[in-house]
Amino acid sequence: MKTRVTVDEELKRLSPEIAPPRDLWPGVVRGIVRTPRSAPRLSSVPWMAYAASAAGICLAAALTWVMVDGYWPTTSSPGLANGSTPAATPPAQTLPNGSPRGSPAIESSAGVVASLGEPSDPHYLAARAELERTFDQRLAQLDPGTRAKIEADLASIRRARDDIRKALEAQPDSPVLEQLLASALHDELDLYDDVVRTTQPTSARI
Amino acid sequence: MVGSVRHLHLMDLSDENVEPTAVIAAAAEGDLAAFEALYRRFAPRLYGLCLRLTGQREAAEDCVQESFVAAWRGLGRFEKRSRFSTWLQRIAIRTVIARRRGLRNVHEVGEPATGLPDRPDPDGVAIDLERAIAALPEGARDVLVLVGIYGYSHAEAGNVLGVAEGTCKAQLHRARGLLAAALGAEES
Q: Bridge partners of A6?
């Protein structure tokens, strides 16, 4: 029979610390990448908010146009269509072509992207590099078939990104294309995040 | 170089009684490795707090992640008037409260008392207690968790929860009574 003790005595037995059942750090990094410290808030920049709003209204039509014109690969991820968290950006000054992955991943995404408005802030780049590093590690652990599929998806997203950049070169003032570029960049991050989350080490799960 | 920096961070964080000021400063300057060291050190405390306040594992995980992201963004404003862990906990509590408001707005209702810790507990007392806490009404649970487990004063708890100190005391009294009834323990 349990000895009657006071509630306060029971509470004192509880540790304030409980280990999370899985590693939450990749999710934190993802959040950091998505909302870098120096990123301007959309709502605080009226013209950007206006551009994003206009882009949102035109998105459905733009998607149709892009598909018909063959800008977007058929394997693009669904994130493109949801128009989530657009980061309206000023037009590009230079529009380099795609580049290989790896540590160069930072160059192939962040470095290049910086010229198109994605934050070039070193904190953001470091966070993004951390996410990509984890992604590369986890990807390497997958079976060849799965890895090939993911790499194909990633290549599709990057091709789309580069196509949009080329289109932006011709129409640097197009908010629709800016929106599409932002979506492509988010798709890339979503893919990294999906792989990192779904390949969480078994020992870290309940 | 990076390895040695990480080692320094870990060394600096090994003593719970020492505020890791160098690591905090490095993280505030944008050193992600330093921030990860802070995460490794404080995530269990924040997860414990969030899990007890939400009563749900997934909600607690979300809140911990959101809290650390908010902390990263706000590190430059951390004024060292309180301990870093206290500052982090305040962010976490506000995150939990904001999440509740959001859920209410979309009429989502979470199932309480799931995902409670699976730590070794031969006599089952701690698990029973955690479940009883999770089953408490929100207001009573918040105060009990902050005051009873995390050592807040009534004034501090009232401040961070946005309720009067007297309300806090009343909620704690209520929580103790409900817990005592649930556990067959004496109230105080």
A: B186
Range of the domain at B149: 121-188
Is B185 close to A21, i.e. CB distance below 8 A? no
Q: Is A6 helix (H, G, I), strand (E, B) or coil?
A: strand
Could you tell me the pTM of the whole model? 0.57
Chain B residue nearest residue A206, CA to CA:
B118
Residue A154 near residue A142, CB atoms below 8 Å? no
Report the helix count and the strand count for chain B, using DSSP H and E: 9, 0
- Within a domain: B166: yes
Residue B159 lies in a domain: yes
> pLDDT digits over B65-95, tens only?
999 999 999 998 888 788 999 999 999 999 9
- As a whole number of Å, the end-to-end CA separation of chain B is 54
Query: Could you give the number of structural domains in chain A?
Result: 1
**Residue A57 corresponds to which tokens in the numbers above?**
């209204």
Given the structure tokens 């890339």, which residue do they identify? Answer: A188
What 8-state DSSP symbol labels residue B112? P
Nearest CA in chain A to B181: A7
pLDDT confidence tier of residue B155, bands split at 50, 70 and 90: very high
User: What is the crossing angle of helices B154-161 and B84-105, to 10°?
Assistant: 40
Q: Which residue of A14, A24, A28 is in closest CB contact with B129?
A: A14
- What are the chain B neighbours of A32 within 8 Å (beta carbons)? 32, 69, 72
CATH number of the domain where residue B152 is located: 1.10.10.10
Whole-complex ipTM: 0.81
- State the Cα–Cα distance between residues B90 and B73, nearest whole angstrom: 15
Cβ distance of B68 and A31 shorter than 8 Å = yes
Residues from chain B contacting residue A126 (CB–CB below 8 Å): 30, 32
How many independent structural domains does chain B possess?
Answer: 1
